[in-house]
Amino acid sequence: MNIHVKNNIFWVGKRDWEVEHFHGKEYKMQRGTSYNSYLIKEEKKVLIDTVDLKFRTDFVKNLAEEIDLNTLDAIVINHAEEDHSGALAELLALIPDTPVYCTANGVDSINGHHHHPEWNFKVVKTGDSLDIGNGKKLIFVETPMLHWPDSMMTYLTEDAVLFSNDAFGQHYCDEHLFNDEVDQQELFDQCQRYFSNILTPFARLVTPKINEILGFNLPVSMIATSHGVVWRDNPTQIVELYLKWAADYQEDRITIFYDAMSSNTRMMADAIAEGIRETDPRVAVKVYNASVHDKNEIITSCFRSKGILVGSSTMNNVMMPKIAGMLEEITGLKFRNKRASAFGSYGWTGGAVDRVATRLQDAGFDMTIALKVKWRPDLSALEACREHGRSVAREWALSPLPAAAPAVAAETASASGVENGEGAQKMICSVCQWVYDPAEGEPGQDVAPGTCWEAVPDDFLCPGCALGKEVFDPYEG
Ligand code: FEO
Description:
Layout: E1 3-6, E2 9-11, E3 14-16, E4 21-22, E5 27-28, E6 33-35, E7 38-41, E8 45-48, H1 56-66, E9 74-76, H2 82-85, H3 88-92, E10 100-102, H4 104-114, E11 121-123, E12 129-133, E13 136-142, E14 152-156, E15 161-165, H5 184-199, H6 203-214, E16 222-225, E17 230-231, H7 237-246, E18 253-259, H8 264-279, E19 284-289, H9 295-304, E20 307-312, H10 321-333, E21 339-346, H11 351-362, E22 366-367, E23 371-374, H12 379-396, H13 415-419, E24 426-429, E25 435-436, E26 472-475
Parallel strand pairs: 8-9, 9-10, 10-11, 15-16, 18-19, 18-20, 20-21, 21-22, 21-23
Antiparallel strand pairs: 1-2, 2-7, 3-6, 4-5, 7-8, 12-13, 13-14, 14-15, 16-17, 24-25, 24-26
Helix pairs in contact: 5-9, 6-7, 8-12, 10-11
Pfam families: Flavodoxin_1, ODP, Rubredoxin
Protein name: Nitric oxide reductase
GO molecular function: electron transfer activity; FMN binding; iron ion binding; nitric oxide reductase activity
């Protein structure tokens, strides 16, 4: 089975709908992936990359149906990670003398994976080319650390196709091969997730390397990646996105993530988020529990953010293990141009917050003062959290803040408003923070909308924690 790409270029890769993880369990794939391998049938027959190790037998069998393997003149390995060179040993067992074109580092990493130093390696460097007949050449461009030392791209002249390997790819599986044939939002999301979680550490290398490639002034009609789609509709759109993402990217967005032994640190996170939103309604605020939510989504959100707030309960004097893992990963990703602050609830020592703050500072974030709360935050502590959020919103604002919205004072509400419950005093449960809004009542207990707190029956129970009216306080939020 093949898919026609252009002229004499054919996709002979493998789709993987069911794969869920990559790099061990560290990268969760939401929409599978593909391992793209390309067969070029000019006067010379050339294979660009292979597929993942687990598909090696199917791949070689399929390739043998596409071409007499003995007529294959060259194999180009742009990158040796096993999702691209995984079928090489099985293929070369059948055609052992076939030249393998790769970088000098490629020889090392291919041998490191396959242990066949006797293979017929042809080492190439940037600018080297291979004439494949019919007036066409393959030109090689080394791209070290995008994302391995051995990485390179291969450009096919005349057809103007750039085989970019991992760069510009995404873990995305679709029955269609080309970028204009798939769901655009899904594609964008997976491109951004891939860049955020895999390429961010090398972002500083992306711009000069892209500029070097653009400097060759080669036309590009398609970018044929090794995962996901082939970019044929406006193929350089992904190059432009990479240039944008590599330039210390940030949006007007704040990510808050935490882990909590009980709900105390979560209550802080919610109150901080509220304070941010109150003060700067323009900013997107996203809150995640690191032990519940998809780690790669949290990292993608951090990548998009101008700043992050990281919360942890103190457990055995240190931070929660999930937060420690997140901070280790974030340190490796080398985010730049971002603010950060730590927060958390504690019982008898607050060691976690200090450790989180230190780790964030070591990871290169521009730090804002931390916030600790002892035990479960009461109303006054929650107000301190909201005020912390307001302060963060002001300090991290990307442009002057909008004028504050006029406050609604319950006590000045009109008589008719109070009758409807609009503007009447809201009440908050001091235990679980559920808020009673007179305008809404509590239909679950037959308390009609418009019922002020004084008229709520004495046997009313908080829907959040089942405690009585006596635990409620006036709510000023
Ligand atoms: Fe670097 Fe697709 O592996």
